[in-house]
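As described in the Methods, two query proteins were run sequentially through the folding procedure within a single session, without resetting any intermediate state between them. The first query and its resulting structure tokens are shown here.
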Amino acid sequence: MMRAFVSGSAGVLSVSLGAFTGKGRLPTVSRTVNGELTYLSTDLAALAESYFRRYAYPDFLRTHSLLVGRIARVLAGARSAAGDDVDTQAIGLAAYLHDIGRSPLLAGDVREHNELSALVLAAEGLLECVELARRHPVYAVLDPHTAPRTLAERIVYLADRRGGLEVLTIEERSAEVAARHPRYAAEIDRSTPVARAIEREIFAGLPFGPDELGAHLG
């Protein structure tokens, strides 16, 4: 099994995404003798937390990732209840771990964080999460090579577009990201109408609308 090798504070992930072109399956439930989660369980948040600890997530990244995961799970569950064939577990876990490429353990690697996220998830054996994480950035919709194609990929993308450190509208989230990354403001502005179209698609036929999302997170 190929693994990620990280050295020091400026670690470099020594794996290639090209090595993971096959369709994998999320692993089944398994625990070590001390009870630590090691594979997929029904408690996706607990599994995500184990990765947050392993990859030294700072508090703000953990908060953001937990929110994006919750949003994605609600949307995936709603689409599944509406009759869509979606892997709710893969969507949820990919959403929780979409920013794993921002881990401080990978500081110094100049590749885009979504590409690093894809590489880490592939190295961890979570192959069904790879493309869902790789296609999540706000600007991804502007490039056909990274634009979310499937319903699952669009759910993770939208979850990140609605979740900052709290639930935001697409416009609020776009403004927040542009304020932190002003050199990408034009691309973020161009992506906003596309994100809105994805939101309309995902909410079509659901018993609640985008403005009610926060109330459904529990």
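Immediately afterward, the second query was submitted; its sequence and tokens are:
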Amino acid sequence: MEEEKQLWKGCSDGKVEEVQKLLENSKLDMNWQNEFQYSQTPFYIACYNGRIDIVKLLLNDQRIDVNKSEKAGWTPFYGACLNGHLEIVKMLLNDERVDINKADNSSWTPLSIACEKGHIEIVKLLFNDKRVDINQTTSGGLTHFLVACYFGQIV
């Protein structure tokens, strides 16, 4: 478990060489969840923190569960959309394993959160991707457009 913690920390801090070295261990649990950080995986924290080079490395490792969510149900894709990491969003959209419509525990989708946060370039990407369910609503019945309006992103 010590190496899993090191991997998580390396992904969080953007330490590419350290992560590369740890990836050489075939017994490493790549989807280990840090119980002290909302059960986030190393891949999740790399996407959430915008660590592009590390995300590239991890996407090439078939051991990674690219859709493994943390406690609130946020996937790595959701985390990238939340924080406006456009290049990571593009990389994840190009990976067919990524569930781009997977909602969190409150039925908010990556598109919903991008609308709330006003990440216009990400919203455009998602609206133009035929796989995205633009009619999906939150558990409260909010549409993506209503979310954007409510949070003052559309004037």
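The chain has one domain: 2-150. We note this only descriptively and draw no conclusion about the first query from it.
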